[in-house]
Amino acid sequence: MPVAEPVDSAGDFALADLHTVVDLAVGRGGLLLTRGERVVVDEIRALSGEAGAAYARLSNRVTTIWPADVVSVNVAEELVKCGLLSRFVTWSQRADALTMPALKKGCRVLGLPVGGKRAAVVERLRGQTHWTDQGFLRLRHPRLILRLERWALLRRRPDRSAFVVGRLGVVRWPEYTPTPGVGLFATRSVWRRWSHRLRTMDAATPEDWLAWLDAADSPAPGRLSLVRPLTRRLIEAARQLERAGEPQVAAVIYARLAEGCHVRADGIAARHALALESAGQSMEALEVLTHALSEARPRHSVGIHRTAKRLSRRLKRGWPPAAPLRPITERRLRLTRLPSDEARPLWQGNSGGTVIEQAVMQNLADLGRTALSAEGTLWRTLFAVLFADLYFLPVPGALPTRFLTGPVDLGTPHFAERRRSEITALFASIRAGHAEDLIRDAWRRWHGCALTGAVWSVVSESELTAVANGLGPEPLVAMLQHLLRHGLRSTSGLPDLVVLPGPSARIDGFPSRIPTELFCIEVKGPTDSLRDGQRVWLDRLVSMGILAEVWHVDART
Hints:
With 557 residues, the chain is an alpha+beta fold. 52% of the residues lie in helices and 9% in strands. It is built from 24 helices and 14 strands. It has helices at 9-29, 35-45, 49-59, 73-81, 91-97, 100-110, 118-125, 142-153, 161-168, 188-200, 206-215, 227-243, 247-259, 265-278, 282-293, 298-315, 356-366, 375-391, 413-418, 420-431, 435-446, 461-471, 473-486, 532-543; strands at residues 65-67, 85-86, 136-139, 329-335, 337-338, 346-349, 352-354, 371-373, 497-499, 505-506, 509-510, 513-514, 519-524, 547-555. A hairpin with a 2-residue loop joins strand 6 and strand 7 (352-354). Helix 1 packs across helix 3, helix 15 packs antiparallel against helix 16 and helix 18 crosses helix 21. It starts with 8 loop residues before the first helix and ends with a strand.
């Protein structure tokens, strides 16, 4: 029997990672373990040396059954003796664990065909016995290990590789001391109910999902929460019902989601109304829109008004006009369109054919102006750089575990409430003209670190400081306040490009003279039009004192 590879420092690290996970999990949810589970946990904690390193490596694998030569005989014997591995493996399980050559060898022993794909060969051997004399090992208590990882990392799909990529320098994780204050489940029965729902979620029906949300009897912190995956499944199920010609059933799902406050009513109001209209309930649809409009966020109110206005005309009823959005500067730019079989048309840039946004950027570069690819990524990165120090303040419960890229309350009202004085000081410093110094200092300390919102590859330090300086203190603070209040997800719909301040220039279009100060551009091709979210953001930028334009690109004739 082959001897296993010698254990090196990587094995020691793997065991240290496992011990860290177990300690974090027991510290957070030890009262939810049975006496027998505590015995297993104590056995894992007591592991050391070659056996401990081997177990740490095996318990982190996707599979739970392996040929016995995966570790040395002495290590296997030690782990079997302490109850962490087992030699009892069924014949069907053995087939799943072997490679194709070994499976074919087993087929030859029984006189079975050896051709076909792996699944066919495995199925051929199921139910058969005595086709190999190879020994096997099976990981015991895999569900307990998974549970400990979930409790330690507060994720439904935990991954210990975060330890490894951090040590190797592949990912630079933020350094902070986890802050206590986040509990797990009130009782073991609550945890069992949560675990059952997670395990059966994909096979359950929309009615089951709604009942689970309405019951609210298995709450869990952080990414362990089932609320978001359940609501996402329900909204997709309602859309499928609409497409299948069952709008009445879809409308019931939308109504229960809104009535139970599982999602914001304005986010699904238009779809709810359309489902009711398709079901012949136009008056009820109009009532849904009227109710949602009272608390609608700007990016949803445009669609609600449009749908309600159309319904009102059909019902011969009045509907109050929406508050008009500010007029936006629109330009027409002429570029050369290239023949192409690509899904997106190609346009002539200074380096050949490219997509329309890149062509506009290269056209501006020829005129001496720098344009940055923006959308939401640039703005989220700007926010992350300026707020990085505030992310990792020792706020109780905000940093409950390791390998977080930001506090768990980011994007909620609690983030600002718990850091009010620090945020006030940050905005005061920006208003005093220190934005460039703040960005340079934060960039030096945080660049390359995994931070919520930051995408370091899209913008350089000099470009980010140029954006901040080009905006000016008050517009920059206004943008940061919006992202602070509404979360980084609210950046959806921001314009494609940000043009930095530069010399006066004329484009091949109308109007031809472009501003010398910083301005944003939403680029639209010949067949493209503004979405509601984009129109709202253009209006919002202008209200913040930031120039924003729509550039309609036409093909040169």
